[in-house]
């Protein structure tokens, strides 16, 4: 099947072709016809499956089909909510790329930057808004955005929004939207909380699931290197240099850990940058841009900061520290092996993290291959110690909404919103 068979207009087909895509991915094949039929959907799709185009293309098509020639002023017809700034930027970039031959305007709204340029853009007239919940509520409270004519509501990575404590924000946004609208909800996992949200939000939704729940992508080679905690950085440096890795995304649990490891790798002669919630928005955008352009070999990130990173052919992901929330492992390794490409996900695991590893293997229903690197054999005399989870940036939002060791249940609400 080609994109021509999906019922998209010539302008969208031209934009898709410019991006080098000929055939839709499985989620696009399933989602696009259903969305064009004006049905609500609940879509379970891992990162790298093409889900952004899966909702962007039919959304643009429907807006174009039902344009109102009598209206001279643009008004918000589609609202896309995302959990993080980075993801909002990625989604709005896709909207701009695929809609470049259509006359519709889009903008991105998130916190951490001045609000006045956003207000100016909205006053000029916008058709499609991509936003994070906190800053969107700021605009709603200041009456600088009119959502009364929204035809489409899209929640991207809804599971992460709930996990970050945005459920109350989402409800406040819903309160100002029209009751008659088409709603599309995308989530990498289907928790009980997602099901509750679905029941209250979607109207007879079509379920689209292109991968089994919490299944890690088959094209990703996963491996665990057991190693003492104090020798992880040394082993990582060895692997990068001897493997001649040119682009590596490394995950840490804390902001402080990101900064420290990035500095250590730079001292080892490996260009590196850190990205986390304490970095300014400009610094985060620059770090990601330099990483994509190959100016730095290693990007060290926390889970929240890396959520919107979308790189088609990222070859290596390294869990320098395993996440305490098992589902985050699936999200992390999903940064590689995207769009049918091969990828490698490597975890450096010390004795303290064995419980985390067991929980991850249980979640993905798979034993991850273990390989001890010669010269880095773990010291059997070292005993496991509790892992401190607070304070350093493993937080969910600014409220310190972290979860304790071994607790894999998503936390609902209660977190302070932050301005993501």
Describe the structure.
Mean pLDDT is 84; it is low at 390-420. Helix 14 (326-333) packs across helix 15 (354-364). Strand 12 (316-319), helix 14 and strand 13 (343-349) form a beta-alpha-beta unit. The protein is globular, with a radius of gyration of 21 Å. 46% of the residues are buried. The chain is built from 15 helices and 14 strands. It has a 7-stranded parallel beta sheet, sandwiched between helices. The protein has a 7-stranded parallel beta sheet with strand order 10-11-9-12-13-8-14, with helices on both faces. The chain has 2 domains: 3-209, Rossmann fold (3-Layer(aba) Sandwich), CATH 3.40.50; 220-370, 3-Layer(aba) Sandwich (Rossmann fold), CATH 3.40.50.300. By secondary structure, the chain is an alpha/beta fold. The two termini are 38 Å apart.
């Amino acid at each position: 099947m080609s994109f021509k068979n999906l019922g998209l207009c010539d302008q969208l087909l031209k934009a898709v072709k410019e991006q080098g895509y000929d055939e839709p991915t499985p989620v696009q094949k399933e989602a696009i016809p259903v969305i064009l039929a004006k049905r609500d959907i609940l879509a379970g799709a891992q990162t790298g499956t093409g889900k952004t185009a899966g909702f962007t293309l039919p959304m643009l098509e429907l807006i174009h089909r039902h344009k109102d020639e009598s209206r001279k002023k643009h008004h918000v017809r589609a609202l896309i909510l995302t959990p993080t700034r980075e993801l909002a930027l990625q989604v709005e970039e896709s909207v701009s790329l695929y809609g470049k031959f259509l006359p519709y305007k889009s903008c991105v709204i998130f916190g951490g930057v001045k609000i006045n340029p956003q207000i100016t853009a909205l006053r000029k007239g916008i058709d499609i808004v991509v936003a994070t919940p906190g800053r969107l509520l700021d605009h709603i409270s200041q009456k600088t955005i009119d959502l009364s004519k929204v035809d489409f509501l899209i929640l991207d990575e809804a599971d992460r929004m709930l996990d970050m404590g945005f459920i109350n924000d989402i409800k406040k946004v819903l309160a100002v939207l029209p009751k008659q609208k088409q709603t599309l909800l995308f989530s990498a996992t289907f928790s009980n909380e997602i099901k509750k949200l679905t029941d209250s939000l979607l109207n007879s939704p079509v379920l689209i699931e292109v991968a089994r729940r919490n299944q890690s992508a088959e094209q990703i080679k996963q491996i665990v290197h057991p190693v003492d905690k104090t020798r992880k950085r040394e082993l990582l440096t060895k692997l990068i240099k001897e493997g001649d890795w040119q682009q590596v995304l490394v995950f840490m649990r804390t902001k402080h850990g990101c900064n420290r490891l990035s500095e250590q790798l730079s001292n080892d002669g490996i260009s590196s940058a850190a990205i986390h919630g304490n970095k300014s928005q400009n610094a985060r955008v620059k770090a990601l841009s330099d990483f994509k352009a190959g100016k730095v070999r290693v990007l060290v990130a926390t889970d929240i900061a890396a959520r919107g990173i979308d790189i088609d052919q990222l070859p290596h992901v390294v869990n320098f520290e395993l996440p305490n929330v098992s589902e985050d492992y699936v999200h992390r390794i999903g940064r590689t092996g995207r769009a049918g490409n091969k990828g490698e996900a490597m975890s450096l695991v010390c004795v303290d993290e064995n419980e985390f590893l067991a929980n991850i293997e249980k979640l993905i229903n798979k034993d991850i291959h273990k390989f001890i690197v010669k010269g880095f054999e773990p010291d059997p005399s070292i005993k496991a110690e509790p892992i401190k989870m607070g304070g350093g940036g493993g937080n969910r939002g600014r409220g310190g909404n972290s979860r304790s060791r071994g607790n894999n249940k998503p936390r609902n609400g209660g977190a302070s919103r932050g301005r993501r």
